[in-house]
Amino acid sequence: IELEGELTIAVREQQFRVAFEPIVDIHGSAIFSVESLVRWMHPEKGMISPNTFIPLAEELGLIIEIDRIVFKKTCQQFHQWREKGIISPNQKFNVNLSCAQLQRSDIIPFLLSTVDGLDIGPHDIVLEITESYLLADSGLVMKNLNEMNQLGFSIFVDDFGTGYSSLSYLAKYPIHGIKIDRSFVRDLEKSVESKELIRSIIAMADALKLKVVTEGVETVEQLQVMTELGCRYIQGFLFTRPMTSTQAQTFFVDSP
Ligand code: G
Ligand code: G
Ligand code: NA
Ligand code: MN
User: Could you say which residues form the signal peptide (predicted)?
Assistant: First the structure.
């Protein structure tokens, strides 16, 4: 209950920062994209993890505003990095959009007005949407996703494989990629089944011409297995943990 009030204040006072975590294209070991991840800098409690406050923000309807704060900050940061030549012209960025955004008629005008006048556009942006959200049958979700696709945004399914339901949405919506949930990678060493599941997910994604990102790769062994299985895009602590913008800038300059 205390946290509820504080989250409302946090939105009003914009107590949010963005952390950056690269997604590496292992063909050529270049950075494919960078995911932006929200951090709540609480004035007394310090940093609060999104796992703690995102569910609450969704419940309170504050997630719309938080996502939009994060999106704006991320766009402004990437615009700066582009201008300074710190990131290459084809390097993208990934942002998380909560389900509630897809159910709104003002999401497209919001996205477009935010990038308007900046050195970035829809082709630079990957929108990450959690799998479970795509299961709801909604005309507005369909309309928004189709329009995002037509404008040049990419749409990736986040936490892929955890929605325990029909995969029919992959045919129904314009989806460009999936992010295999890190629970599959965590079980890779102990479980032959996990490896075979990942193998079949990648085969399916290839057949549907979807890009595949694997999240949560922490060890060289996991990277080797994922490479052997044909996963091209890798994200995880093996490369780096989520970084501040200053750290990220150093990382980009030092990476090929
Ligand atoms: O960065 P971290 O692993 O702590 O993130 C935990 C969860 O919070 C992840 O599931 C991630 O998708 C989600 N998350 C991070 N940033 C954002 C954001 O800006 N908006 C939304 N809706 N979710 C986010
Ligand atoms: O659900 P989503 O994919 O948006 O979550 C991203 C979250 O996963 C971030 O909070 C990030 O900190 C976390 N993450 C990224 N790479 C790794 C990793 O290699 N190991 C673990 N444990 N978490 C990771
Ligand atoms: Na995400
Ligand atoms: Mn993600």
Answer: none
What Rg do the C-alpha atoms of the chain give, in angstroms?
18
Sorted by sequence, the CB contacts under 8 Å of residue 70 that are 6+ apart come out as 16, 18, 36, 38, 95, 96
Tell me, what's the ipTM?
0.94
Residue 63 tokens, joined: 């997630």
Dihedral of CA atoms 234, 70, 79, 178 in degrees, nearest 10, equals 30
Q: 178 near 212, Cβ under 8 Å?
A: yes
Q: Which atom of ligand 1 is nearest to the CA of 49?
A: 4
Both structure tokens of 7: 């989250």
Q: Tokens 């006072």 correspond to what residue?
A: 13
What confidence tens digit (pLDDT) does each residue in 175-218 have? 999 999 999 999 888 889 999 999 999 999 999 999 999 999 99
For the chain, which domains are there?
A: 17-39+61-254 (3.20.20.450)
Assess whether the C-beta atom of 18 lies below 6 angstroms from ligand 1. no
